[in-house]
């Protein structure tokens, strides 16, 4: 039988790292009032990858000084200046036809249908099987959390 001993510090450090990763919550933000440039590095000298429009939701992966590394709905990673992001929350419809309902129930009346990639404001950030959203036209209701990205 082969027995390998690991130093206590390595094991304890690994456990702490895994625990902190598991405890970390998703940090979603929205591109603020003005579009932002997404870069391949945390510097304005980095390569410009994309211009993110106002209202686009992003998931903040890591902060580095005045910069944040973000993931978009397609899963692409890039860097942007943190000051260009807003705490306001939006979500993007990720299914062909998401039904927005009057109540958080499958049998509730449909108040609107949102096509794929439609931007909706997240009214209540409490995540559950349903989330409360509002379209820019003012129509509000509940959509299945699995039908949108940004929660």
Q: Care to count the β-strands?
A: 14
Mean pLDDT: 88
User: How helical, in percent, are the residues?
Assistant: 10-25%
From the alpha carbons, calculate the radius of gyration and give it in angstroms.
19 Å
* Helix and strand pattern: HEEEEEEEEEEEEEE
* N→C terminal distance: 48 Å
Most strands sheet: 5 strands, antiparallel
Anisotropy-based shape: elongated
In spatial order, strands of the major sheet run: 6-5-4-1-7
Low-confidence segments, given as residue ranges, are 10-23
Relative strand content? 35-45%
| Tally of individual helices | 1
**Estimated structural class:** mainly beta
What's this, in brief?
By secondary structure, the chain is mainly β.
Can you lay out the helices and strands and say which pair or pack?
Layout: H1 8-23, E1 27-31, E2 36-39, E3 48-52, E4 57-64, E5 67-71, E6 77-81, E7 85-86, E8 90-93, E9 97-101, E10 110-115, E11 119-124, E12 130-134, E13 140-144, E14 148-149
Antiparallel strand pairs: 1-4, 1-7, 2-3, 4-5, 5-6, 8-11, 8-14, 9-10, 11-12, 12-13
Could you explain the architecture of this structure?
- The chain is mainly beta and 151 residues long.
- 11% of the residues lie in helices and 44% in strands.
- It is built from 1 helix and 14 strands.
- The strands form 4 sheets. A 5-stranded antiparallel beta sheet has the order 6-5-4-1-7, with no helix packed on it. Strands 13-12-11-8-14 form a 5-stranded antiparallel beta sheet, with no helix packed on it. It has a two-stranded antiparallel sheet with strand order 2-3.
- A hairpin with a 2-residue loop joins strand 4 and strand 5.
- The chain is elongated.
- It starts with 7 loop residues before the first helix and ends with a strand.
């Amino acid at each position: 039988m082969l027995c390998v001993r690991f130093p206590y510090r390595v094991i304890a450090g690994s456990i702490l790292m895994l625990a902190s990763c598991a405890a970390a919550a998703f940090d979603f933000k929205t591109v603020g009032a003005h579009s932002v440039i997404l870069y391949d590095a945390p510097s304005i000298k980095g390569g410009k990858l994309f211009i993110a429009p106002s209202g686009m939701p992003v998931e903040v992966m890591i902060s580095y000084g005045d910069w944040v590394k973000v993931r978009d709905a397609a899963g692409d990673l890039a860097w942007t200046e943190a000051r260009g992001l807003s705490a306001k929350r939006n979500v993007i419809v990720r299914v062909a036809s998401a039904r927005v309902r009057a109540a958080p129930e499958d049998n509730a009346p449909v108040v609107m249908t949102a096509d794929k990639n439609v931007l909706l404001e997240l009214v209540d950030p409490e995540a559950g099987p349903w989330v409360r959203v509002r379209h820019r036209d003012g129509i509000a209701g509940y959509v299945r959390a699995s039908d949108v990205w940004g929660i």
